[in-house]
Amino acid sequence: MSYNRAEYDTEALRHNVRIVRELVGDERRICPAVKANGYGMGAVIMARIMEEEGVDYLAVAVVEEGIELRKKGIDLPILVLGAIPEKDLIKAIQYDLTVTVFCFSTACLIDYLAGQMKKKAIVHIAVDTGMHRIGFLPEERSKGEIKVISEMPHIELEGIFSHLSQTDKSREFTMAQIDLFRSFTDDLIAAGVDLPIRHLANSNAILDYPEAYFDMVRPGILLHGFGSGSGRSNELKEVLTLKSAIVRIHDAPKGSEISYMGNYVTSETRQIATIPVGYADGYFRSLSGKADMIVRGRRVPQVGNICMDQCMIDVSDVPEAAVGDEVILYGGNGDVRIPLEEAAAKAGTITYELLTSLKRVPKYYYFEDDD
Description:
By secondary structure, this protein is of the alpha/beta class. A hairpin with a 7-residue loop joins strand 16 and strand 17.
């Protein structure tokens, strides 16, 4: 059994998806992103909770993620957002996954394979409105190709989408993307292409850009409690609390060089505690000497370089600290918290990366009726 535990508050997750529903209304579909193992939470349990909350769709990044959900009994439509290798297209069609198409040749192959399987492949078209990642370019040639795809006998063209790349930076750029998406898809509809589901809004757009709602929205990081800093962001609840425990405490005399490289040197005798969590657990080495943790309701500094499996904290200001005490690395209860956004900033990264890095840490889920 590990000393480390990632605790997930499922009621906080439900609360956050309900905020999305209030914002976008009942007439629009909600497609939560459960890719990257549910942003570290666990894709299956997250998908089941989303299903119970009445969402309409799920989004994953790769075929294997969609198949895992199907094998666990998830019946909701599942959109594979990324590029699919040719060898995996048959699996995607077999498991009734919705396939993203962003080039004409791939659509031709999907139509052929679906015909061989005597099935219809459900397809969403990706459009590149400024992310420069994947998608048809919004030009006349693409309109003609998408029109042909919509008429292929073994393809059901269900939707079209793009991705907003600067919602947290530039309103001007974001509005230009929204306008381009609307104009391009309006032209397709005018040309006789049936597009039942147009979707564009990511988490920040859900909070700040109602112009981007269209027919469906795709919340991701928002569901885990992180918003844009405006509007209803303050109502969101963080889902994750990362915990460990003290396994050793000792007095380090003045001049002690703590951890690898000896970068932290005690200026006087300090009480140093060891925590069995390190960068292999997703607690980034770049946090070394920058982060705080919580022991007995008080913040204490992390000291010395973070090791692969362990790190040290200075508990001199918590004299009652003892071996076995719980240590909170992210999250917490009450007034003393370590916001994940704070840790991400100190690590020089984003919350997404911290959430998805907890691969080795055992996961525990808390429900409303838990004690």
